[in-house]
Amino acid sequence: MTSNIGKQIAIICNLEDQVNVNPQIDWAVEQLKETLESKWFHVNLSNEIVEDEGTVFTVVVGNLNDNSLDPHPPVEAESIVINPVKINDNPGLVITGADSRAIVYGLLEVCDCIKHAEDPLLELENFLPVNEKPANTIRSVKRLFVNEHTDKLWFYNKDFWREYLTELATHRFNRFSLALGMGYDNGHDPDIKDFYFCFAYPFLVSVPGYNVYVEGLSIEERNKNLNMLRFIGQEANRRGIEFHLGLWTHTYEPEESPDLRYRINGVNDDNHATYCRDAIKTLLEECPEIDGLTIRVHYESGIPEPAHLFWKVVLKGVALSDRTINLDLHPKGIDDELLQVAEENGVPFTISPKFWAEHMALPYHQAAIRETELPVDPTPEAGKMIITTTSRRFTRYGYADFLKEDRNYEMFFRIWPGTQRVLLWGDPEIAAGYGRAGSFCGSKGIELMEPLSFKSRKTSETPSGRDPYIDPALRLGINDWKKYRYSYRLWGRLLYNPDANQETWQRYLRNEFAKAAEASENSLKYASKILPLITLAHMPSVANNHYWPEIYSNIFIIDTDGKPEYHCDGRHPDTFNVASPLDPELFYRIDEFTEDMMNNQKSSKISPIETAAILEDLAKSAKQNLVKANELIKDKRDPSFRRLAIDVEVQIHMGLFFANKFRAATAYAFYEKVGAKELLDKALFYYRKARDEYEKIADVTRSIYTNDITFGYVPYMRGHWTDRIEGIEEDMKRMEKQTQFIITEPSTEALERATVWLNGKSKAKEISVEHTPPLIFQRGDDVSIALQLHGTDQGKVTMKYRRVNQAEGYKSVTMERKGNEFTSTIPSSYTDSLYPLVYYFEVEDDRNEKRQYPGFENTLSNQPYFVIRQSM
After folding, report:
1. HSE (CB half, 13 Å, CA atoms) of 319?
2. Which is deepest, 29, 107, 439, 456, by most CB within 10 Å?
3. How many whole angstroms separate alpha carbon 771 and alpha carbon 207?
4. This model's pTM is above 0.90
């Protein structure tokens, strides 16, 4: 970049524009100045435009009261406009925004372009106009402190925070949440040891009027913790990012924990609630940088249910603050009484449901929850979770019944990290899909629990620390987040604008991988669809600390005594074929599919065989692009490329493993019904292929990742891919033994039918469907729905609909046909409620083959149903 030496760029910041008189703008201008100087430019800062023959480019921040430069400044919050202009006959840019945060985004956008440009001046001179506004009001990242030994390293490191928070701001995240007390679920976990920051207050502040302290914690360390919290908040606020603190534990004395470190003294049953109330008030006073609090208000916080009286006292701590605080309630187990407590507190609040239970699936809200999550009547056996596990258990893993049109609270969704914790993720299509789904039924956005969340949770630290690599060339230490820079870039920018210009992520890839950029992007894109699809189609446990498909512990196909310790929380028995999809409305269980096939009554649900075919296609596409990337990359030993290539390869083999296991399990399910040796042989054929793919994962990762990657203390939440092969082999051997005991003669017709279905040969006839959903409906009115079919004379259409309330099932109605048009009505008696409506169609062709409409597009990133809001 020495060709830039001596070239002068002017940055003009209008100090008369009140939007620009802001420390955030000062910080962002300094970032731009430093970025330009790192490319050898000379930078001239000024508050007015002056003629200077030495200036080759000018960046104007604000409109300078000159509408000729920016005739249409943005008005919607966080909206950005960047316009190329001519200033004194030289090229320039004008950056305007509706507020200071928007201008920060604009300045950081220019920085990002310069950093990743081969010729920065040419990049500036050819800068494309930007005119964007946010699709989601809340775009948040949550980082978890869950282990004293590993997490103090980054918590106390100021350089870490400066770089990390700058990255978030660059990609337009507007909220950062630091979660304390998520290391354990204190209502469940026995033998808790690491209690650091769990009951957080006494680790941060001394509350007047209470003699509460932590055994083993010095006053100096407590003050250090508070000062670091203030520093994090200051650095976040400097970048235009809200700072939220998560208080996920409110028990002060976990049960059955004799080896607890950092016991709390001075709190008892009599002063517990009032201490928490006053501690919140004190914390907000001592740390004015805190903009919001997230509080878990069910039994996993350690407070037995019902706990309305406890929370009524505690939440007052927020109301007692002398400033506006964003109060966010984690809604698992919340009922109307607790909502009333929150409303009567007088502080506006949000609730933040989990998007896809504690995992990440495709970017739409599940059409239905698993049957084992539906509400049941309270029973004494529910014990201390009398609300959460019974009448309100459907609130645990989705939006539940919270999306009433007249709600007195805001909502956003939290994406939990159960599916993919370690492997690199990066699919712009799925990220954009989540960007569109964040505003579902008037919701405000999404909080992403970052990669490696829960690493070393439950006192599971290892000598390798938080960074999971064993290969020294790949290790990043406390900067492990840098592996996922591409992930943060996609999430932040596409939550802000799902239609963002692809240049905003491709320039990063070009800078990293040069000629291999496009192939690297596509290989990772296809690979990143694999685990979300597996999660959606097959979900033995919705809990992230029970099920981890990324490093999969084999769940047996064969139901037998002596199975390994399982991690299932759904249907019984705990076998692969019985496990429910995460969306049972749109996807088949394996045993359900084979039952319907044998009865010749297949629905439009996506079968495990169809899922296997999609997984195989994704793996094939990822492999083709990875081969191309390997051919084009200049330095195959480059750590960034190696991290990407290794993780893509793992996901390719994982996709093929599950594709073949789905086929093996389905073949075995048909064998159980038909009794044909050919079907058992087919099951073994596919199981062996699945085993071979898992062995390839072990080979790829053996010298790359540490042999004990820990997200908990139970076997299936720690370890390595190499550990899992034994479980696959054991199940396969049990299947092989069954070949000795086949004595039945199968029906020839049943065998032929099972073979055809297993091979997935039958395909629905191509039919053209047209449908325009109503824009809105009036509560208590009939809603007329019309659809047109082209390409079949005998087609049938069934409409399935329900209110946007996950506790309710679908209604089904056969639509009336007149020519190519099908019509039906959702009756007024059903629309007379507080909820929007969701519906989709089951389209049947003249060969009785059925499919869903709208179904999934090839990107797997659309909403596969329609939603109608009420007129309010």
Report:
1. 15
2. 107
3. 61
4. yes
